[in-house]
């Protein structure tokens, strides 16, 4: 009875550890950093390259925007807004998670449960096709 309780406690603990999100933390300077003109140009270039994508261009055309209107609206954005949009575009390109991490976590949990059951009880777990 005691072994069964310990096994289920370990399973629950590993499950909780497996589903907690990963958080990143860092120290920030006390003063805000100001962007230079080159940063604005690089952000504008990143946004422009995203707007040159065929699907994005077609969607904006379907919404009724011309390329001149888009250029005018981009010129009206502040440095912070331009930088925020450029970061979001970069996150979209990089952050395309296919859920592989979740699948690996579930497989590791299943393997750990099988190992714990094999070690604590006399029963064998046999996986067949």
Please outline what is shown here.
This protein is mostly helical. Helices cover 69% and strands 0% of the residues. It is elongated and about 75 Å long.
Characterise this structure.
The structure is a single chain. 69% of the residues lie in helices and 0% in strands. By secondary structure, the chain is an all-alpha fold. The two termini are 32 Å apart. The model has no long low-confidence stretch (mean pLDDT 79).
Topology, element by element:
Layout: H1 2-19, H2 37-51, H3 54-62, H4 67-76, H5 79-94, H6 100-120
Helix pairs in contact: 1-6, 2-5
Please outline the major beta sheet: none
Number of strands: 0
Number of helices: 6
Strand content is: under 5%
The helix/strand series, from N terminus to C terminus, equals HHHHHH
Terminal-residue CA separation? 32 Å
Q: What is the overall shape?
A: elongated
Uncertain runs are none
- The gyration radius over C-alpha positions equals 26 Å
Helix content: 55-70%
List keywords for this structure.
129 residues; mainly alpha; 6 helices; single chain
């Amino acid at each position: 009875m005691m072994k069964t309780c310990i096994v289920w406690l370990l399973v629950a603990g590993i499950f909780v550890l497996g589903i907690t999100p990963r958080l990143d933390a860092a120290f920030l300077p006390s003063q805000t950093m100001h962007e230079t003109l080159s940063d604005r140009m690089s952000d504008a270039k990143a946004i422009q390259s995203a707007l040159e994508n065929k699907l994005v261009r077609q969607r904006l055309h379907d919404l009724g925007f011309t390329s001149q209107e888009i250029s005018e609206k981009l010129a009206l954005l502040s440095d912070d807004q331009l930088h925020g949009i450029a970061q979001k575009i970069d996150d979209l390109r990089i952050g395309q998670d296919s859920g592989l991490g979740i699948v690996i976590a579930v497989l590791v949990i299943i393997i750990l449960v099988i190992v714990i059951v094999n070690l604590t009880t006399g029963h064998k777990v046999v996986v067949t096709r």
